[in-house]
Amino acid sequence: MNQEKSNKKKILTYYIILGVCLLLIAAVTLTVIFATQGGEQPVIDNGGGDVIEQPDDDDDNDDEEDVSSAYEFIAPVEQLDVTCDYTFCYNQTLDCYRFHSGLDMSAAAGTNVLACVDGTVKSITVGDVLDGTKIVLSHADGVETTYMFIDAAEGLKTGDEVKRGDVIGTVAEPVGSEYKDGAHLHFEVSKNGEVVDPNDYLDIAEK
Predict the structure, then answer these.
(1) Predicted pLDDT at 6
(2) Is residue 195 within 8 Å of 101, Cβ to Cβ?
(3) Which of 151, 147, 146 is nearest to 173 (CA)?
(4) Is 179 buried (19+), middle (13-18) or exposed (0-12) by CB count in 10 A?
């Protein structure tokens, strides 16, 4: 009788050990499967036989890069010859030292002036005593560009949408507060109402 009970206990112990081993094997197998498939994108079956793949995170990065590259500035005149930088300097017309809040780009009168980036014409001021004709374009992210000492393109008006590279005017004959510097474009950039260094937006060395 005791021998029979002992055999039953051995059999029961055997099955318990076998069950635990099977559970461990199943757990290890599932872990390996999930680990090897973790990098794959899930798919959705819409019931019509078509399989829809979930979007890849890299696609979002590509979109961001496209937006960024589309917002890069181009030079406002074809041939860049910067004669005065964004710095404190002497103004020979006004005969005084003052902060120069933009870049002066020497160009012959009649040279095309281009919109540096997509935007909207915010204002056009004609015949200002100090600034001559001035065009201000507004862009994304609170950025504005200002073009001074130019003649506005015919038909250009406030509210017009312009694309990067569109001709918005031409360099005028020397006038205003910088007329002794000869014909040139005075170009400024502002961010959220504050004048900033145009060199942060224009890579002069590559233009």
Answers:
(1) 61
(2) yes
(3) 151
(4) middle
CA-CA distance, 91 to 102, in Å (whole number)?
A: 13
Break the chain down into helix, strand, coil percent, rounded to 5: 30, 35, 35
Instruction: Report, as an integer, the average pLDDT of 12-25.
Output: 71
Last residue of a domain, one of 31, 50, 69: 69
Chosen domain end from 47, 69, 91: 69
Q: Using one digit for the tens of pLDDT, what is the confidence trace for 150-200?
A: 999 999 999 999 999 999 999 998 887 776 778 999 999 999 999 999 999
Tell me the pLDDT tens digit for each residue of 29-80: 766 566 655 544 444 444 544 544 444 555 454 444 444 455 789 999 988 8
Q: How far apart are CA 160 and CA 59, in angstroms?
A: 33
Asked if 185 and 147 touch (Cβ cutoff 8 Å), the reply is yes
Residue pair 133/151 in contact by the 8 Å Cβ criterion: yes
Question: For residues 61 and 95, what is the distance between their CA atoms, to the nearest angstrom?
Answer: 52
Lookup: tokens for 105: 């780009």
Specify whether 46 is located in the same domain as 13: yes
CATH number, domain containing residue 196: 2.70.70.10
